[in-house]
Amino acid sequence: MSEQARVSQGDSSVMSEDNTRHGSPVAHHSSFPALDGLLLFFSLNLALQPLVEPDFGWHLRTGLDLLKNGWRLPGVDPYSHTMPDWPWVEHAWLTDGLIGLLYQGLGFAGPLAVIAFFAAVVTGAFGVAAGLARVGRTYRLLAMAGSLWVALPFLGARTQLVTLLGVALVLRLWSLYRAGRLAHLWTIPPLLWLWANLHGGFTAGLLIFTIILLVSTATRLCCDRRPALAARLDEAPPNWPALGHLALVLLLAVAATLLNPYGWRLYGEILESLNNRFMLDALQEWHPVSLQGRAGVVYVGYLVLLGVAVGCFYRRIEPLRWTLLVFFLVQSLLHWRNVLFFLLLATPLWAELLAEAASRMSVLVPEAPRRKHVLLGLALVVALDLAWEGPNHLQRVAESGLAPGQFFQTTQYPIEAVQWIRAHRNQLGARLYNDYSVGGFLLWWMPEEKIFIDGRMPAWRIGDRWIFYDYAALTTWEPLELGVLDKYKVDWAIVGRNTPLNLALAREPTWRAAYQDAKVSIFVKQEE
Q: For residue 406, is it within any domain?
């Protein structure tokens, strides 16, 4: 075996491969099939979510049009009448195409296949992450189920979940490399190439790999200067040839990401979005975590519980793991969008903490029958939760996939208005206004219409046409800037009921309400 392989085997990776010396091997490697099955079913129950993600509609429309046009990407925006000359970069084009293939290729079961696809992606991501912990299967499944439960508000048909799986795979490949399987690291460049075409979050993979390289280099420098430090670490840093190897792989990975339909423009689009202060301040997913809703309370409670568990059961010295966890913890607190990443990285830590807690508890409950009673009680709790919530939830998921038109009648999406529009299209205008939250939905259900705005467009700006800023002026300013409608020559509108814009248009003599229901109003501009 080469020196590099021997050094690599001394460390377990970011997520720690050598836990048996910090707890009972029995606790760390036991598993309990009945409980395992319930936990897996519970996790799948969480991962399966109906198609209510606001951006799903435009991703699906893009995918279906890709198939229709022979996988040729549009040069400019084909879906809005407000920004038709915008040079659109769709960073998730390949995922869109896969969604379109599933939706179109499987007929009536297509929507259900899309639901299953995203459930498989997120379950796979957390499963791969949990597998980084060298503990028993039951502890890995417990950690995965708990993480998915906390992540529930962020799950669904979201292309970001593809990036979550990419992060998990990068960490897994790094773990294999640190275990001495050197060839696995060469999988990183092709993985990043594929990832760059599946979702713009591939930059998270490059960031993680950069952190791995920098922290490993700093740790190696410290160990070379203070040899006694190396014996205290639970993460033996790579040697210098291995670090050179890592740097080369990172450079190749960056180069591989340029092999996409947009080249360097893909990076430009991502940077422009991340630097758009107005967009970041306006969109909820970019806001800091708060305690104003259930999701924030659950997440903060999760962090408190994790802190207590770490204080009680964690005694390892792992600089790289610490760096990654602290970095993504801070990012998750700064932006809701990043909560999933921290939950993913903390999953293997939770598995190890649970195994260590079980090991210590086995001293208090030494008899095997008593331990089995504890496990039986836990299994009953999971089973009761599934019996209470599972059937209703799965019924809604199935209805979403097999009868989406009927399902959307129970949501906030204006499916009833869409049905009315189809029957009365000749009574309406040519240039539509729609609320931001339903733009993607309308592209799904009314593909023949050009929309006003959707989730692709917050950072788009050409001259005086800054569509997201104009949308905010029209819907949130006091008084509302109704001149925006004239600026974009809007002559009919689908507006949420009881919103400021709905009330304002109802008072305008030049606008007439053509349709109303509990969700939306449809206004038509009168000819002057």
A: no
